[in-house]
Amino acid sequence: MTISLLIPVCDYDIVALVHSMKSCMGKIPELAEIIIGDDGSTPENRVRYKSLEGGGVRVIVSEKNIGRAAIRNRLALEAKGDYLLFIDADAMIPATAENYLNKWVASMSLAQVISGGIRYNPNPPGDPDKILRWKYGIRREQRKASERNKRAYAAFTTFNVLIDRNIFSKLRFNEDLRKYGHEDTLLSYQLRKAGIEILHIDNGLIHEGLESNSEFLEKTKHSLENLSRLYDRVTDKKTFTSTVGMLRIYDRIRLFRLRLILVAIFVRFRDRMERRIDSSKPPLWLFSFYKTCMFCAYREIHSRRKFLPALLPDIDI
């Protein structure tokens, strides 16, 4: 069995990452190729990616940005390997590329979908404006495989994942999701519906590309908007809810009829919450509460469309 290593990228420095992986071509027979998916990068970065070609590395180019889902689907179509190893461009190998790839080779026969996990630097970033993303990653995303396997579908992420090519060709990423967020959630739901198990192993990559507090808040907004729209589209809401922590919380909020109260809190205190979260000491409990309130607002907008848009001018309807 062979592996195609797929790296979607848009204006991010992946030179060191690709060189590390490229050094394993020939040493690890199972590594068939490395394909870089340039998703609408600047001409300067496009030249940089093209310079990495050769020795088992290819670059496919999209002149315009087609989105996270579409570029991943295109990479999969170009791949020749039996397994597709998707890694994000802002990942860093914690040890050696050879050790990292050999763990995948040893695990290939165990499952058709295997998640390696995500790690973060143990020390906080020097820039206090990036502390929210780091803190959230350390506390909420960085978990051992034994813990992730307890809720295998809920813990699924495409940051660092190995997928059987035949399985992926039947499901693929939903290209309707152009904005950031929950492409992996929908794929996880599809895998569960198809009865395909997800195995989590300890083979994490370090998430190095931390966004600023304000950028992370903006991405959170897009992510929650996507989640609300997906909830309306899926046919099996019970299964979908079981794979998403936010939806399980939302179910309890509806049960106790607290939804409109949280929407009112969001409208009244949104700016104040965002100022507190966008600080050098952001409280994660407040960030979680903020997300819950915002999601309730999206549900009101998407389910009834009677919510006054003037109260939420930058939330899409």
Strand content: 5-15%
Helix-strand string: EHEHEHEEHEEHHEHHEEHHHHH
Oligomer: single chain
Gyration radius, in Å: 20 Å
Shape field: globular
CATH architecture of the largest domain: Alpha-Beta Complex
In CATH, what is the homologous superfamily of the largest domain? Answer: Spore Coat Polysaccharide Biosynthesis Protein SpsA, Chain A
Number of beta strands = 10
Report how far apart the termini are: 46 Å
**Main pleated sheet:** 7 strands, mixed
CATH level-3 fold name of the largest domain: Spore Coat Polysaccharide Biosynthesis Protein SpsA, Chain A
Helical fraction: 40-55%
Low-confidence stretches: 306-311
Question: What can you tell me about this protein's structure?
Answer:
It is built from 13 helices and ten strands. It is of the alpha/beta class and 317 residues long. It has two domains: 3-210, Spore Coat Polysaccharide Biosynthesis Protein SpsA, Chain A; 216-311, no CATH class. The strands form two sheets. Strands 3-2-1-4-8-6-9 form a seven-stranded mixed β-sheet, with helices on both faces. Strands 5-10-7 form a three-stranded mixed β-sheet, with helices on one face.
